[in-house]
Amino acid sequence: MDLNAKYEVAIQRMVNLLAEVTKKAKAVTCSPSKKLIEDLNVFQIFIEKEMRTTPMMQHAYEIQIFSSREDLKRAVKDVQCFNVLLEEERSKFDDFKRETIFDIAKEESILQSFKKIAEKNIAEQIKKSEEEMLATRKEHHARIELLQKEINSFVGRISLINVKNTAREEDLQKIHLETQNKSIELLAKYDRDIGAKCRLFEKLTLKNNILEKEQKELCIRLANQNVLYVQLKEEQEEAITKAFVEGLEKFKRNRAAKIIQRTWRSYRERLLLKKKKKKTKKK
């Protein structure tokens, strides 16, 4: 078997291996396995396109095929790791599912117990409310009967009050007519009085105007008389002061003369007394 035949057989085996790996990777449902499947599909298409290349190109691709094999081995290892992780996640999910089912059953039992208690309480409340409604209904009927009695008695009172009000209304109408007639008479008298007062007011207004004119004239005359009075008063005050000054001077002169005469008399009397004393001593 020559080199080309061996190369084609190797490529065919590689394609088959990639197809099997792709099928296994499709069974794993996670994001890294999907990426790996896409890479393997691209690699498979690339190998199929390059199966019938020239010997020179095939020799150049041997190095790439070797590296691809290494990558494929690493990819297979990654797939195995992903399978292990997937199994762990499945076991965890199963545990979580069992716990969830247990919790749901527990919650349902609690809900059933709550439901029974609620139904029992509701039945008791309904019974209690029915009893209260019956009691209130009886009380309501008793109140209605009592109110009906009060209404009947009130209707009788109203009829009596209506009779009294009718009689009082007739009396009030008579009083109203009398007061209306009196008010008409008072209005007529008021009109007459107002007319007389208006005429009197006009007369008084005329007299007031005349008096105001006379008052103005008297004010002018009074002002003139005040001026004359002030002048006369000043002249009188001057005459009085002049007479007072003259009298004062005359009084001063008379008083001085009297004082001189009095002192002279007292002096002469003292001299006479001295002479008499001397004469008595000589004897």
From TrEMBL:
PROSITE patterns: IQ (PS50096). Its main location: cytoplasm. It is found in: Cytoplasm, Cytoskeleton, Flagellum axoneme. Keywords: Cell projection, Cilium, Cytoplasm, Cytoskeleton, Flagellum. InterPro entries: DRC10. Belongs to the DRC10 family. Component of the nexin-dynein regulatory complex (N-DRC), a key regulator of ciliary/flagellar motility which maintains the alignment and integrity of the distal axoneme and regulates microtubule sliding in motile axonemes. PANTHER family: DYNEIN REGULATORY COMPLEX PROTEIN 10, IQ DOMAIN-CONTAINING PROTEIN D. This is Dynein regulatory complex protein 10. It comes from Odynerus spinipes.
